[in-house]
Amino acid sequence: MPPGHLPRFPEDTEFVEFSQDPVYVKLAEGTQADATPAPAPAPVNLPPGKINYAGMPPTKTMKDGSGKAASMIMGKFANGAKTVNRITIEEGFEWSTGVKPHLPGCPEHCPATHFGFIERGQMEIKMAGSEEWTVFGPGDAYHVPPGHLPRFAKGETVMMEFSNDDTYTHENFLSGLNFFIIEHTFKEGKAEEWWGNMAKMMGDPAAMSAMMTAQHEAGFHNHSFLPGSSLTGTVHCVWEGSAGKSVTDMQTFIDAQFGEHMTNTVHGPVDAGTAQLAYSPYFGNNPAAAPSPVKGSTMAVIQHVIKPGQGDTLFANMGKMMADPGAMEGMNAKHKALGFVNHAFFPIKGKTEGLFALCIWECKEGIGMQALQEMIDEHPGVGPYCDNKVFIIDASKGMINLTQQFAPSPEALKGATPAVPVVAPQKSVA
């Protein structure tokens, strides 16, 4: 929160501050206030920063050798100057098998400085060369230097960290979140043959298992297969590469898999620090069971292409939106009330013009492409600044692996696949 503001407290409030600003330190020490009037604060372009963690997916999740999980949500305020991490750790989680393998060089002790606050649970710390455990519980602030081991033996532990140490926010650590979006277009006359081969493969569980094993050994995992409504139409896929896999590696791999029948365009890597991934990372984790197939709802991939000269305005607008979680929640609630849910947002790292992001949306049963197109063209985040191309997914042929948000009708649950009617466009979703 920058200088030049006024606070208001409509109800009893308790909070913890980690600011380096000395103004209230002097006040607490009883230092005499300077009689010289304070200068007016410099103009501030951004509003106060706010991050609301409710419903946010983890930036990174790790599981130890026994399956216990630790997850981190890395939040960054709109101006990029402050980072705060919310960490949730299951009781009994082992740092040595859950975190150590993700760190460069696999150090014997944690190499980071931790500065934060325990919200609930308990963290115990033992420094290298010592047998003494220091206990931190709810309400405790902590500052832990490098060269330590943590232990979590009393319930689920939740902590907030404000450290400037980049060990757990550095690309080397987050590189486990290495996602790519592939756009496949069929070569002339090759679609029918490819679909025939795929049908044979899907009818042979042993062959499917062997193919997936080979893909994993090569360092790649397919999270979803999103075909279009036409057998010859565009297909999108969401892939994950193991740590260190580059765009070139992904391109070489995907061309070897599908190059005979398709032209494959690799979009990525996805900027994991700002993405809404929706899929739990495969590498370094125990994969969760796949959700039930989508029935009734219509799923779509949307490509967002920045209009010429609109890039700066787009990103400034997105920064303001992300700095106001209340507005974001309100917008999402309005979208859902109109029958639209955004499952995933995949910004492409470093892209500031052209195709900069892809999204996956769900439309409530009975809502068609026309309504989706108009909604996304009016979307306050991207609508005025992007050309938005909608690709409807054929859920009956695809592997979507996302949890459906709208309840299907009895007819859809029975397996019926009625044609999606064109519904009058929905307006004023902002």
What does this protein structure show overall?
The chain has 430 residues and is of the alpha+beta class. The protein folds into two domains: 172 residues, Sandwich (Jelly Rolls), CATH 2.60.120; 256 residues, Alpha-Beta Plaits. The protein is 21% helix and 25% strand. The chain is built from ten helices and 17 strands. The strands form four sheets. It has a six-stranded antiparallel β-sheet, with no helix packed on it. A four-stranded antiparallel β-sheet has the order 11-12-10-13. A four-stranded antiparallel β-sheet has the order 15-16-14-17.
Topology:
Layout: H1 23-28, E1 60-63, E2 69-76, E3 83-89, H2 95-98, E4 114-120, E5 123-127, E6 134-136, E7 141-144, E8 148-151, E9 157-161, H3 171-174, E10 179-186, H4 191-202, H5 205-217, E11 220-226, E12 235-241, H6 247-258, E13 262-267, E14 298-306, H7 311-322, H8 325-338, E15 340-347, E16 354-363, H9 369-378, E17 386-392, H10 410-413
Antiparallel strand pairs: 1-2, 2-3, 3-9, 4-7, 4-9, 5-6, 5-8, 10-12, 10-13, 11-12, 14-16, 14-17, 15-16
